[in-house]
Amino acid sequence: MKSSGSGDELDYLIATLNEMISRLEDSFERISQFTADASHELRTPISSMRGEVELLLSKPRSKEEYQKVLANHIEKLDFVTRMINDLILLSRFDSKETGLEMAQIKLNELLANFRELFRVLAEQKGIEFALGDNEEADVLGDRTKLQQLFTNLVDNAIKLTSSGGHVHMSLR
């Protein structure tokens, strides 16, 4: 819109509307770029995995070759899963659906569930995963968010530890 140049309330309203339209255009442009970037980040590992599977199926392979490709796919699937979870979290923040479900939680019991969950992943990478004796600890928190927190911590610890290393987790 174009103002009359008189400096009255109508000009002020026109300027305000023009600024709002400009911010909306910028916002839509950022959303469009973000969507394109996220699509690319998801498409790349999926396309790569498909190509690896097609190559793997093109002729008989050894057990070791199959295991190597499958282990590689687990890492790529973990990446895609984290990205999807991050996108879901972002969408919840945008839609104001981030309400926490607060409850009394026995943190030591929550952590005990990780022993078996991450033992297999650690074994595949040749890492010793140990969950120490945890002291009892009651906390007020959101169970799902705390599980996500500890899952990310343990997953990163295992991924960033070299084969033959140790990951030890305990609660004091």
Topology:
Blueprint: H1 9-57, H2 63-94, E1 102-106, H3 107-112, H4 114-124, E2 128-131, E3 138-142, H5 143-159, E4 166-169
Parallel strand pairs: 2-4
Antiparallel strand pairs: 1-3
Helix content: 55-70%
End-to-end C-alpha gap: 63 Å
Tell me the strand order in the biggest sheet: 1-3
In CATH, the architecture of the largest domain is Orthogonal Bundle
Shape: flat
Can you characterise this structure?
The chain has 172 residues and is mainly alpha-helical. It folds into 2 domains: 9-94, Orthogonal Bundle (Helix Hairpins); 102-169, Histidine kinase-like ATPase, C-terminal domain (Heat Shock Protein 90), CATH 3.30.565.10. 67% of the residues lie in helices and 10% in strands. It is built from 5 helices and 4 strands, in the order ααβααββαβ. The chain has helices at residues 9-57, 63-94, 107-112, 114-124, 143-159, and strands at 102-106, 128-131, 138-142, 166-169. A two-stranded antiparallel sheet has the order 1-3. A two-stranded parallel sheet has the order 2-4. Helix 1 runs antiparallel to helix 2 and helix 4 runs parallel beside helix 5 (143-159). The longest helix has 49 residues, at 9-57. The N and C termini lie far apart (63 Å).
Short description:
By secondary structure, this protein is mainly alpha-helical. It has helices at 9-57, 63-94, 107-112, 114-124, 143-159, and strands at residues 102-106, 128-131, 138-142, 166-169.
Give descriptors for this structure.
single chain; 172 residues; mainly alpha; Helix Hairpins; Heat Shock Protein 90; two-stranded antiparallel ribbon; two-stranded parallel ribbon; 5 helices; 4 strands; 67% helix
